[in-house]
């Protein structure tokens, strides 16, 4: 991935957020945006910053995960989603569900996760 691209890590679970960030740092990904910073980036409306998002990793076990997915799809056009967990995606549009390019179980399988990026 290009050094200018950002990977958003969206999770309410501090441990999962930290573990995912650690894996991303280990593989040399420099553009990691996590937690409140990721939510701030999504709500900023800054087109240039939003265009730099290459992928969003979403914790499917969080409350309100469908709202998070809808927000990412609305403000970051074309950004693929990696979903950790297997939530019910009822209520999402076909376009929103098609943005989920991979579903992964926790704990993450390193190879599958890296290949999905």
Write structural notes for this entry.
- It is a single chain.
- The protein has helices spanning 14-26, 35-44, 47-51, 65-75, 94-98, 110-116; strands spanning 6-10, 32-34, 53-59, 81-84, 100-104.
- With 117 residues, it is of the alpha/beta class.
- The longest helix has 13 residues, at 14-26.
Summarize this structure as a short list of keywords or feature phrases.
117 residues, alpha/beta, 44% helix
Number of helical runs?
6
What structural category arises from helix and sheet content?
alpha/beta
What proportion of the residues form beta strands (DSSP E)? 15-25%
**Form type:** globular
Short structural summary:
The protein is an alpha/beta fold.
SSE topology:
Elements: E1 6-10, H1 14-26, E2 32-34, H2 35-44, H3 47-51, E3 53-59, H4 65-75, E4 81-84, H5 94-98, E5 100-104, H6 110-116
Parallel strand pairs: 1-2, 1-3, 3-4, 4-5
């Amino acid at each position: 991935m290009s050094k200018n691209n950002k990977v958003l890590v969206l999770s309410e679970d501090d441990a999962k957020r930290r573990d995912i960030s650690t894996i991303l740092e280990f593989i040399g990904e420099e553009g990691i945006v996590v937690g409140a910073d990721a939510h701030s980036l999504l709500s900023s409306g800054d087109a240039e910053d939003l265009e730099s998002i290459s992928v969003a990793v979403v914790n499917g076990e969080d409350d309100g995960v469908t709202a998070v997915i809808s927000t990412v799809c609305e403000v970051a056009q074309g950004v693929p989603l990696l979903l950790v967990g297997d939530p019910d995606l009822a209520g999402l549009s076909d376009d929103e569900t098609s943005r989920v390019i991979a579903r992964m179980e926790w704990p993450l399988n390193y190879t599958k996760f890296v290949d999905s990026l």
